[in-house]
Design brief:
Elements: H1 9-14, H2 23-33, E1 37-38, H3 39-46, H4 49-54, E2 58-61, E3 65-68, E4 71-75, E5 78-82, H5 106-114, E6 122-126, H6 132-138, E7 143-148, H7 151-163, E8 169-173, E9 185-190, H8 213-221, E10 226-240, H9 245-251, H10 255-258, E11 261-271, H11 273-283, H12 288-298, E12 305-315, E13 324-328, H13 334-348, H14 352-355, E14 360-363, E15 368-376, E16 379-389, E17 395-399, H15 401-408, H16 416-422, H17 429-441, E18 445-448
Parallel strand pairs: 6-7, 6-9, 7-8, 9-10, 11-13
Antiparallel strand pairs: 1-3, 2-3, 4-5, 10-12, 11-12, 14-18, 15-16, 16-17
Helix pairs in contact: 2-3, 11-12
The structure holds S-adenosylmethionine.
């Protein structure tokens, strides 16, 4: 199994995993499959029964067995405990409102792989759940503050910090930034609930009628709690309406903040509102009339598309214009997402255009060029040429013949100035800078060295 998020919990549980033959078998049976294990088998293969009981990670079950009180699993180099998502006896599991979200899901995996973990002294983990977002940063940071609405989550964050020997993590309970005070951070990591819901489901997933209720609060409050140069990475789903999501996000900020905050969105997936809400309604057994009433309430919002992705806000350290950008990156991870923000920051700085001729650029291997042939005069002639790429971003750019030649020579060895000469391209510096800006920003090329 390449990643723990590939676990289909119910299937794993239902399979016959055979005889216990090692300590790892016992841990998997107890903490992932969630079945009870005989005390004798715990002692024989794992030992440490007293320790696990003392930590209240297991408790007696039946005559002579033990069962886990939580789900417990490795995430990168940490062990994380969160609430169980099954019953010990195999009966139908019904979740409850303040359940602690498990980090084994592909959603949290997006947070784990999408947020950079090093280079930040102070970190705020908003909507922390079991705390994985902040805890993963704690080894490299001086201080981590984790905040969640639910008391239960705060206990889990404290437990998980202690379990992993992390002493620089503080957890506080409260809504949004209420428990944070005026403190500012280098990094804010956030994974709020963002599911549009007709009725409240669970606190970890219910984002209000349009899904944006909590995420909007997290984003609006972000700039006040960022140090100059600090960044917030918010994994959520917002919507394109009359304006695209990133433009709407800008509109949520005060005029002062707008002048100093950059916004970059890397979209992982687009969803259709009707399909999404209809599937939710089916899964939750909501009546057709409920769904219709819900859609009627949503109609004035003119939602075109739900955009699930990483929303990054950067508080500029000053002295340059701000940017707003969106890229489509279904498989993009932290390096690509942070790389986009780094590059856009560089391109927004005064003097960027003057330096581009000295850059060495390399076209990414995943790029391809397609030329449309057009009929005319009894033959086929090359028409428009499109440069396309999928990794790290899905991008397309129409290019002319001269640019095609230039791109073919971009292997990272010679500075751009020399390449321009070799294809006799004599464009003004601003035009060259604009092309270079786009090539790197859209992920066609990377800067070498
Ligand atoms: C999708 S879970 C994410 C948990 C964790 N960050 C992760 O990725 O596994 C959303 C979390 O937001 C918390 N939450 C919901 N409303 C909140 C609010 N108003 N203020 C702070 N946290 C909130 C929930 O309790 C839940 O733990």
């Amino acid at each position: 199994m390449p990643r723990l998020s590939a676990i289909d919990a119910e299937r794993v549980r239902a399979r016959d995993s055979g005889e216990l033959r090692s300590g790892a078998d016992v841990l998997i049976r107890l903490f992932l499959e969630g079945w009870p294990v005989a005390g004798e088998a715990v002692d024989r293969w794992l030992g440490a029964r007293g320790l696990l009981e003392g930590l209240r990670l297991i408790e007696p079950y039946g005559e002579d067995s033990f069962a886990a009180t939580v789900t417990l699993y490795p995430v990168m180099d940490l062990f994380i405990a969160s609430d169980r998502f099954n019953n010990v006896d195999g009966s139908k599991f019904v979740g409850w409102d303040d359940m602690v979200y498990q980090c084994l899901l592909p959603t949290t995996e997006r947070l784990i792989t999408g947020v950079p973990r090093t280079g930040f002294e102070s970190v705020l983990d908003m909507c922390a759940g079991a705390g994985v977002g902040g805890l993963l940063c704690a080894k490299a940071a001086k201080r981590v503050l984790a905040v969640d609405l639910m008391e239960r989550c705060v206990h889990f964050v404290r437990f998980n910090a202690a379990l992993n020997g992390l002493t620089n993590v503080e957890a506080r309970q409260g809504s949004l930034y209420e428990p944070v005070g005026d403190e500012q951070f280098d990094l804010i990591t956030a994974h709020p609930p963002y599911q549009p819901v007709w009725r409240h489901l669970q606190t970890f997933n219910s984002g209000g009628m349009d899904g944006e209720q909590i995420a909007k609060g997290v984003i609006e409050g972000g700039p006040k709690h960022l140090k100059p140069g600090g960044r917030m990475y918010c994994l959520c789903q917002l919507s394109d309406r009359a304006e695209p999501a990133e433009v709407r996000v800008r509109g949520w900020l005060t005029a002062e903040e707008q002048a100093e905050v950059d916004i970059a969105v890397v979209s992982f997936r687009h969803r259709n509102l009707i399909e999404f809400t209809a599937v939710s309604a089916l899964c939750e057994n909501w009546q057709a009339e409920d769904w219709r009433a819900w859609m009627e309430q949503m109609q004035p919002l003119r939602i075109r598309d739900l955009v699930y992705g990483m929303y990054v806000l950067q508080r500029s350290a000053g002295g340059r214009k701000v940017f707003t950008v969106r890229r489509e990156g279904p498989a993009a991870e932290a390096e690509a997402i942070s790389g986009l923000v780094d590059w856009e920051t560089r391109a927004a700085e005064a003097g960027f255009a003057d330096g581009v001729r000295g850059l060495r650029l390399r076209l990414r291997k995943s790029c391809e060029m397609s030329v449309r042939m057009e009929a005319g005069g009894g033959t086929w002639k090359p028409g428009t040429a499109m440069l396309r790429n999928t990794l790290p971003f899905e991008s397309a750019l129409q290019v002319d013949e001269r640019t095609m030649e230039l791109l073919a020579r971009m292997d990272g060895r010679k500075p751009l100035g020399e390449l321009l000469q070799s294809v006799s391209m004599r464009a003004p510096v601003e035009k060259v800078a604009a092309l270079v800006h786009l090539l790197v920003s859209k992920g066609f090329a990377e800067v070498v060295g």
